[in-house]
Specification:
- This protein has helices at about 1-10, 15-25, 30-40, 65-70, 80-95, 100-105, 110-120, 145-150, 160-165, 170-175, 190-200; strands spanning about 15, 45-50, 55-60, 95-100, 125-130, 135-140.
- With about 200 residues, it is of the alpha+beta class.
- The chain folds into two domains: about 1-60, Arc Repressor Mutant, subunit A, CATH 1.10.10; about 80-200, Winged helix-like DNA-binding domain superfamily/Winged helix DNA-binding domain (Arc Repressor Mutant, subunit A).
- A three-stranded antiparallel sheet has the order 1-3-2.
Length: about 200
């Protein structure tokens, strides 16, 4: 158990099941070991969290202010505009998706620059070629996307249909720039026209 905990503690990236199995053997239950480590960490200022397909030690959110006061902010969050968050959200929910399909969704062309910025932030990557005429590239989210938003897998995204049924999300709301609080990072654009300009 201590070898697993030490490996996860020392790693910069989440440690996957395969790596842990090499340490303790394939016959050992990784899930049971992780549960035991989490039980030992109960009440501590940090926890073992399933994220991006592996496990990582993360401090509890309640201690964020104390850490910032002591060592400053080491935030590496992507600085995204609302328009970029909107496109990223569509890619996350409807991947693999082409730039043309994104443009159809928004009713305006999604610029190559916007896609390039999301690719540069390593939040999206090229997916399989679309079977449509011309075989355009599709876009998919990356492991860095999961890390950025604290997700273990894409199944951890809020259920899109449930959000629609609850009246919290709809295509009309997305196009108007009205989406759930906390999804946008970076600067906030208040005008719909500004959002639309970023898409074209």
């Amino acid at each position: 158990m201590h070898r697993v905990e030490a490996t996860i503690f020392a790693a910069n990236e989440p440690v996957g099941r395969e790596t842990l199995a090499r340490i303790v053997g394939k016959s050992c239950s990784i899930d049971l070991l992780i549960d035991n480590i989490r039980e030992e960490l109960r009440g501590r200022p940090y926890d073992l969290v399933a994220i991006a397909g592996g496990w990582k030690h993360l401090t509890q959110p309640a201690y964020a202010n104390a850490i910032r006061a002591a060592v400053g902010s080491s935030e590496t969050k992507a600085n995204l505009k609302q328009s970029e968050v909107l496109v990223l959200m569509c890619i996350a929910y409807f991947q693999p998706i082409t730039r043309g399909e994104l443009s159809s969704f928004f009713g305006k062309e999604v610029s190559r620059d916007l896609i390039g910025h999301l690719r540069g932030a390593k939040l999206i990557a090229s997916g399989p070629r679309s079977p449509t005429p011309g075989a355009p590239y599709t876009y998919v989210t990356t492991k860095d996307f999961l890390l950025e938003f604290g997700l273990d897998t894409l199944r951890d995204l809020p259920d899109f249909e449930a959000l629609e049924d609850a009246g919290l999300l709809s295509k009309e709301k997305l196009l108007a720039g009205d989406f759930p609080t906390g999804l946008a990072g970076g600067e906030k654009e208040h005008e719909t026209d500004v959002i639309e300009d970023q898409l074209s």
